[in-house]
Design goal:
237 residues; Aspartate Aminotransferase, domain 1; three-stranded antiparallel beta sheet; 9 helices; chromosome; DNA damage; Non-structural maintenance of chromosomes element 1 homolog; nucleus; zinc-finger
């Protein structure tokens, strides 16, 4: 009986609660949590059945327009799991947590990152936008504080004064970004998910995540574009 097989147990509920409190979880953490939940609630555990375990949870989340989605960190290629609100995939769901001017700063930061060559925006460029906000101009100090909160809340990641979209943001807002930045947003040619930090073929314009580039060209003596077969113009990371 399929209905019986997809029964939600306390193990599933505990997994969901912990994931909700984290917002996003790295693959190895999720696997550990899966095991722990099954052991605590004495439920059948199989180490290679995490995705089945999650799809059971997802079938029960469906009426609530929620879903646990799997995505990839653009930095190191590791899998991550995040709980996504499907009813409001737009920035609207951030509206309950931030003021209008904070949201405007986030949107402008997103513009800079997505329209950039490498998927990053410098703190200088972002802070220069703070006093051009239509909602309410921000002082630089205030804007720095807001950026810090976006990093803590896992919407942005920061490295040496350079900001990019956090893995959680990419998983949650993939549809929003693809429909609002149709001319520039591209999917990775290898894993077919949204690529913000990517290398691009100069001949045919396809893009690939850096971890996907690394994996794809590992076995090739001469790096050639998987689409047009031209020589790959970028350094292999």
């Amino acid at each position: 009986n399929i209905a019986m097989a997809a029964q939600m147990t306390d193990a599933h509920r505990r997994f969901l609660q912990v994931l909700m409190s984290h917002g996003i979880m790295e693959g190895s953490e999720a696997r550990k949590l899966h095991r722990r939940c099954c052991e605590i609630h004495k439920v059948y555990y199989a180490h290679d059945k995490l995705d089945d375990f999650i799809s059971t949870i997802n079938s029960h989340l469906q009426p609530l327009f929620m879903q646990i989605r799997k995505g990839m960190s653009e930095g190191d290629g590791r899998a991550h799991y995040a709980l996504v609100n499907l009813a409001e995939t737009e920035i609207t769901k951030m509206a309950s947590d931030y003021t209008e001017s904070e949201l405007e700063l986030f949107r402008k930061t997103m513009d800079l990152i997505i329209l950039s060559e490498n998927g990053f925006a410098s703190s200088t460029d972002i802070l220069n936008l703070a006093d051009q906000l239509k909602t309410k101009k921000m002082k630089k100090k205030e804007a720095e504080q807001v950026l810090k909160v976006f990093v803590e809340d896992k919407w942005l990641s920061e490295r040496n004064g350079e900001y990019t979209l956090h893995t959680r943001c990419i998983i949650e807002m993939e549809q929003y970004i693809l429909s609002n930045y149709q001319d520039v947003a591209r999917k990775c040619n290898i894993c077919h998910s949204l690529a913000i930090q990517s290398q691009v073929c100069e001949s045919c314009g396809i893009g690939m995540h850096l971890p996907c580039v690394r994996k794809y060209f590992r076995a090739q003596t001469e790096p050639r574009c998987p689409q047009c077969n031209d020589f790959w113009p970028c350094d292999i990371p």
